[in-house]
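Notes from the 1:1 (GR / supervisor)

We went over the backlog. Supervisor wanted to see one worked example end to end before approving the batch request, so GR pasted a single chain during the call. The sequence is below; no edits were made to it. Supervisor asked that the structure be written out right there so they could see what the output format looks like.
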Amino acid sequence: QVRLVESGGGVVQAGGSLRLSCAVFGSRFSINTVAWYRQAPGKGRESVAIMSSGGYTTYAGSVKGRFTISRDNANDTVYLQMNSLKPEDTAVYYCRLWPSPGDYWGQGTQVTVSS
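Structure output shown during the call:
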């Protein structure tokens, strides 16, 4: 059974940094695409950063230059380094893995940026 477990969320002041981690269990991690999404209160879920199995990355325009996605295939973990955080980055952050053996999401971790 595939499970994704996020950690690293918390409360930080504007301008600060956080690093989110997502540990993946039960999948062939290295062959999958991994991604971070977020959902702010009253808004839909949006893609933040995506990394393919080959290491190709894409970022939302609002985080480009501030956030960095990375993956450790030896430890089946994906990271999101978030720098220069803004209050508008406040959201629940989710990791996602697909396509083998399916499409899986973590339970989410709260990030709150105070002004």
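Supervisor's comment: The radius of gyration is 13 Å.
Batch request approved.
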